[in-house]
Every structure is written in structure tokens, then in C-alpha cells.
Amino acid sequence: MFNLRYYQTEAREAVYREWDRVQSTAVVAATATGKTELYLSIAADPILGRVLVIAHRDYLLAQPERRLVGAGFDRCDIAVEKATQRSEDKLTKAKVVFASVQSLSKPKRLATFDPYAFDAVIVDEGHRAVARTYRTILAHFKQNAKLRVLVLTATPKRKDGIALGTVCDSVAYSYGPQTAIEEGWIVPLRFFRREVAGLDFSTVKLKAGDLDADQVERLMLEERPLHEVCASLAEDRGPTVIFCPGVAIARAYSTIMNQRYRNERATVLWQDSTDEERETAGKKLQNGDLDYLFNCDLVTEGYDVPELVRVVWAAPTASLVRFTQGTGRVFRTHGSLRHVLKGGRDDAEARKLAIQQSPKPLGMVVTYYPQNCRHQLCEPTDILGGEELPGEQRKYAKQIQEQTAAQDGGSAPEEDVATAAAVVEIRKLIEERRKKIKAAAVITDHEYDAFGATPNRSAAKGTRDERKTVKEVSNDWPATKPAQDNMVRWFKRQGVDTDVAESLTAWRAFTCRRLVEDYGLRMETALSMGKGQALAVLAKYEGKVHATA
Predict the structure, then answer these.
(1) pTM, rounded to two decimals
(2) CA 455 vs CA 255, 452, 531: distances in Å
(3) 119, 231, 379, 493: which one has the fewest Cβ atoms less than 10 Å from its Cβ?
């Protein structure tokens, strides 16, 4: 009935293993990796018995209902519990019941259900399961000691400190965005930082775990930032979803875009928008009849437009849930790849090549930043595993991303994280080296004056021809990951032979580039240095910087 990918099969098996030892478990998986297919395959399992699926929006119930029927599941075995629709009125009870949390959590309605009516409860968009309404429903059915609970989410953590551990006994399986990108199931991401002159968030307070939307909206409705953002957006092409702090600013943006910049290419959605309006906007984006969808927290979950090329944050957010869910809208590969991406882990390179050659080779995330803000804002590493980064590496990754995201090519978080790791390692080794070297010149200068070092000790006694080759010198360097593609391209642009550029490790490439760009060494000199010599030069330079600081 369901043709699951290898990681979905692994997740499914992990869920059943966890249910053998705990009552409730979770699957954490990136947006666009098929959480719905996964849980529907479990809900349809005849071994499991009756299953209740709960979600907070109608379309999160209607979409999986249609997919279940489309997969060949008997329509008579499906029921809905929301508003005036009742699931338990039938003489024969449905195998799968889709329920609205708003309706089912009402005490009188919930009381009509036998706590033993279901064998399993599945919570879609499970980061919401910590809310009182969800906990009320779960508590009612957990009176059945044999009940099994599955929570699915792309966001296991929240910046307010409330995590899935409050409703789940374990996490059965995790499949994050970085892994999904590396294995070729979602598009790689590029993050862009655009600063808005004169936009000052220094007085903005936090409210319910995010920047106070009313304060932010008032500041952004001022004429200068309003037109600055719209003028910038007018340069972007392709289906774009813009997340706004409030309805007023969303309407203002849409009006300005339509009247001044892009005639009738923008629309607005908010909480009062109907499902029909929402679906119409999605189809227009998909068909190329619309470029800008301004919304206020309406399309953060379950809004799937594979052709979407860009997500824009009209203002940064401090809410990790909101940032993760909103940014996830751009993860999906182009619709033309629907039946192209397949295979196992060994086929990752073929999938990535297909994505690279598709009409949507990557997803763009643009954030408009104020000149200052005193709160911790969400950043690219929050999407790609930043929570697990050691403190120093996270600090440097943030600094690096602030620079790369402001450049034309944007920030590639995985590359910035790798660079930050190299910075941390080099600084650590420099500090160790500094403790060992004395004030006297350890390396005699016979070649150049920049920092009192030579490319190779043999150069002090011999000619340039006696120096070690690049290949020989490479033996001095640790065998780390190969240099990133963008780094190899940089060396080629500097005139370095292809075979030499491609032979460099990530750490050595980063160090050599730093020696050339930051400290003025010749490329030939930097490449001929062994690890110890390069670190000595860096240590000596760092020492001078500290001495004059």
C-alpha cells in the first residue's frame, strides 16, 4: 500500500521496537521527508487495531485522509471527528479516525469516547503536543495502559525550554535536514541576510517566546523600512512565501508590491483566510501566476508547494518552532523530481545530481534584520543541527554566517559549520604552539620578511629546488575531509593546478587561504608549508596582534 523509502522503513521499525518497551515515542524528521507517509503506513497496519490521528488544522486532516484513500485504503474504514462530524456514530467503527484537536479536547465531547476505543494515538505536528488541549486528549486515552502513542515533528526543541520529553517517553528515530540534504532527499539551502537601515529593535520585548509581534509590526510599518523591504523583494523572482509579524504589515507589503513594483503578483493569507483561498494561492504559486505570498503564521505547517524557491522572514524570529516550520516550506524538491528520486543510501550522489540539474537546485531563505536587537534570534545553524555544536564552534559559525549570508552567494550552513570547526581546531593548536615556542626566532627568514618564517626548514640551507613538493608536504597534515568544492574553486582561480587544489584537505585549504588572504603570503609559500610551520606563522602573527591589542 505504501512504498516507503529506506529511512522511513527504519523509522517505522524503530517505532514498533520502542512500543515494545515504552508507551509513547516520537519520530523527529525534517520537513519534506515523508512523515505523513510514515504515520499513515502505521495507522493502516491491520495488526495495530483502531488508530486516532489528531491535528490542529482542517487541512492537516483532509490531506492525509485523501492520501490514505489514494493508497487503496477502504473509505469505509476512515472517519472524521470535527465540528458536526462524528466518528463514533457508525454501527461499525472506522479503523482510522482523523480528529480536530479543537473539537475533541472539549470535555463533554471527549467524555463520549471510551478511553479504550483506540489502540494507538498519532499526533501530527507533534511539537504542539505540549499544549494543554493535546495533553487533555492524551491523558484521557492513556487510561488504557496498552495504548501506544506516536508523535511526529520536525521540531523536537523549543526555545522556551519545553521539549517533547514532557509528552514522550523516547525518540525512536531522527532524520534531520543535514542528513536529508546529504542523502539527496531535500534541496540544499542558502541563507541570505539583508539589513534594513534605520530599523531599530533595541526596545522590542519578548512575548510568548518570540519578539512581540505588535511592537515589531509598528516599527516595520514606518515608511522607510516598509519601502526598503518591498524594493528589495521586487528584485526577487520565482514563487516566494513571506512570513510577516502581523496582518497589517502583510497587507501593506502586498498592496505596495501590487501597486508600485509587481502588478497583481502578490496576495495575502492570514488566520481568517479560508481553505479555498489557501489552496488557490498555492496553485497560483505553483503555476507561476503569483510571486509573493505574504502571510501571518498560516503556512508554517503542511503547506506544500514543491516549486517554492524562496522563504522570506520580513523580520527575524526568536521562536525555533516558527523558524524551523516556516523555513521547511522550501525544503521540497521540484515537482518534476517526484518519481525521479529513488533508491537507497548508496544512490545519494545520483539524487543530488538530479536536484542540482532540476529547475530548483536549492532553496533560499532570506531574513531582513534590524540594525540591532537585544534578544537571541534564530539563525541558520538552528536548522542544521546547531544545537549540538560545541559552544566555541557555534560562536564562530554564527560570526562566519553573518558575513557569508550578507554576500551575493548567501550562506551554506554546512560549509560555515565546517569552517568554524577548522577555526576552533587551528586556534587550539596555535595556543598549544604558542606555549612551546620561545621569543627567539625558531624559523630563520631567508625567503621573505612577512612574519619571520620560511616555507620549509631546508630552504634556509638550500635552494628553491630543494623544497619538498606539495604532495610530500601534505603528509604532514592530518587526513581530514577533502576541501569543499567552493574552496577548490577558489584555489583554481588563484592559478593553482587542479590536481593540487583537489588534493587539499579542508583544514589545510582553510589554513593556506588564511595565510594568503589575511597575512599576505605567496600561494607557493603557503602550499609548501607543513602543518607545524603554518601554525608557527599563525601563532607568531597572533602573538603580535595580542601584543598590540
Answers:
(1) 0.77
(2) 62, 10, 11
(3) 493
Measure the CA–CA gap between 545 and 381, rounded to whole angstroms: 30
CB distance 452 to 445 below 8 Å: yes
One domain, residues 529 and 493: yes
**Which residue spans within 24-75 are E strands per DSSP?**
24-29, 51-55
Question: Nearest to residue 453, comparing CAs of 349, 509, 529, 517?
Answer: 529
Residue 466, φ and ψ in degrees, nearest 5 = -85, -5
Copy the grid coordinates of residue 406. 550578507
Top pLDDT among 94 and 470 is at: 94
**155 with 185: CB under 8 angstroms?**
no
Give the count of alpha carbons within 13 A of 452, CB side only.
13
**By mean pLDDT, which of 159-173, 234-248, 325-339, 500-514 is the weakest?**
159-173
Name the H helices within 71-195: 101-104, 107-111, 132-141, 177-182
CA 111 to chain centre: 40
List the domain range (segments joined by +) for residue 477.
437-548
Tens digit of each residue's pLDDT (9 = 90 or more) over 437-464: 544 334 333 333 333 333 333 333 333 4
Put the strands of the sheet holding 78-81 in their side by side order.
78-81, 96-100, 51-55, 120-123, 148-153, 24-29, 170-175
**pLDDT at 476 (0 to 100):** 67
**104 shares a domain with 64:** yes
What is the total count of domains within the chain? 3
